[in-house]
Amino acid sequence: MSKIIAVEHLTLDGVMQAPGRADEDTRDGFPDGGWAHRHDDPMQAEVLGKHMAAHRGALLLGRRTYEDFAGYWPRQAGNPMAEALDKTEKIVASRTGSGPLPWQNSTWLGGEAVTAVPELRRRQPGRNLVVLGSGDLLRSLMRHDLVDEYLLLIHPLVLGTGRRLFDGVALGRLRSADSLTTGTGVVITTYRRG
C-alpha cells in the first residue's frame, strides 16, 4: 500500500503557517509570513530533493496550498523545483472546489479526504502521496491516523502565534528514522508511525 508522507516546515513552537512569503497566509492576522527563508541553505534543498525523488508518487494538496503553489511555481522558468512540480501529479482535496484546475497534471480528489484518500491508496499501491503544507487537510488526515511518515524541517525560531501543525491532534508514538542539522540550525528529522 502507498504511504502518506507529510513534509512540513515548523518553528520550535510548532507553527507551520506561511513559511514561504509575507502574504502567503495572513489568516487570524498572522504577521510573520516568510519566516523560513532566514534559515535557507543548500543542505535543505539537497535533502528535500532526495526525499522527493525517493518517494515518487503524487502531491496531495489542500485547496489553499494548491492555489498558492499554482500561482507561483509555474512562473519560475528554469527552476529545477518548478520543473519537477510541473511534471508531478497534483491531487487537490477540497470540500468546495470544482471545475478545471489551472496547473498541469492537477485533478480534484473528490469526496471527503478521510474516506477518499484510503481508497486512493488502495487503487495505487506503491505510489506515495506527499502532503506539502496543507495544514487543514493534514490535521484531518492525522486525526484519522492516515499519515505514515513526517519529514519535519524544524527551524530555530519561536513565533508565539500562528497556526500549529499539531493543534487538536493526538498522534501517539512515533519513531525517529533519521535526523540531521543544517549549518543554519534547521533540524531535519523523519518520524514514522511507531
Automatic annotation (TrEMBL):
Please list where the region (Disordered) is annotated: 19-39
Q: What is the lineage of its organism?
A: Bacteria, Bacillati, Actinomycetota, Actinomycetes, Mycobacteriales
Compositional bias (Basic and acidic residues) spans? 21-39
Q: Which SUPFAM superfamilies match?
A: Dihydrofolate reductase-like
Q: What is this protein called?
A: Dihydrofolate reductase family protein
Highest taxon listed in the record's lineage: Bacteria
User: Which part of the chain is the Bacterial bifunctional deaminase-reductase C-terminal domain?
Assistant: 3-187
